[in-house]
Design goal:
This protein is of the alpha+beta class. It is built from six helices and nine strands.
């Protein structure tokens, strides 16, 4: 399940210094591959199976066409260039979107990351800001609530795969075919020099 939160308006925010380790992500740098690692880290296996184990469409779309739409995607890098947190902001005609994702073992300050995102959006047209948080991303909720986000709606984001027993269609077709009566092939035996079927009655001679 995914919870949608809404911020009616962006409050005045102080100028946030660039966070150490935060970098603007671009498709040309191969960042989509590293974002897949983050997705596989924060997403339960059953959800990965339901979603095809792919980078979320919103992430890849922002990397590919973000500069044309005004989207901004930032990644928090730790040692080894591993992206352990994501910030994505996207402008809209009726409302803006903010997304914060952090791995359980990330060293990022989620509060500071959220505030940095709101600061970047503060110059955009004055519209509500929405944020979507899945139930397994509980560490992000306190930071959003602290900034004034309130519950707005819920939506299901995972399809449960079920298994149903079915008959083999070939077996079903063969079962429906009527059995045709085929002429029997009696066994032939030689009796008194004559060919006589064993299942046929033999001539009776000399009743007396």
């Amino acid at each position: 399940r995914e919870e949608i939160l809404r911020l009616a308006h962006i409050p005045p925010v102080k100028l946030v210094r660039p966070l150490p380790g935060l970098r603007y992500l671009e498709l040309e740098n191969g960042d989509e591959v590293r974002l897949l690692e983050l997705y596989l880290t924060v997403t339960p296996r059953r959800v990965q199976w339901a979603e095809g184990q792919n980078v979320p469409i919103s992430w890849s779309a922002s990397l590919t066409w973000g500069s044309l739409r005004g989207d901004e995607v930032y990644g928090f890098e730790e040692e080894g260039k591993w992206i352990s947190a994501l910030l994505r902001i996207s402008p809209g005609k009726t409302g803006h979107w903010l997304e914060v994702v952090a791995a359980p073992n990330s060293q990022v300050d989620v509060d500071a990351l959220t505030e940095f995102g709101l600061e970047r959006m503060s110059t955009w047209p004055k519209r509500p800001v929405y944020a979507a948080v899945r139930e397994y991303q509980g560490g992000v909720l306190p930071a959003l609530h602290a900034k004034g986000f309130e519950p707005y709606a819920y939506q299901a984001v995972m399809v449960k795969n079920t298994t149903v027993w079915t008959k083999d269609p070939l077996q079903a077709r063969m079962g429906g075919v009527e059995k045709r009566a085929e002429p029997s092939r009696p066994t032939i035996a030689l009796t008194n020099g004559e060919l006589i079927a064993e299942k046929q009655p033999q001539p009776i001679k000399n009743l007396r």
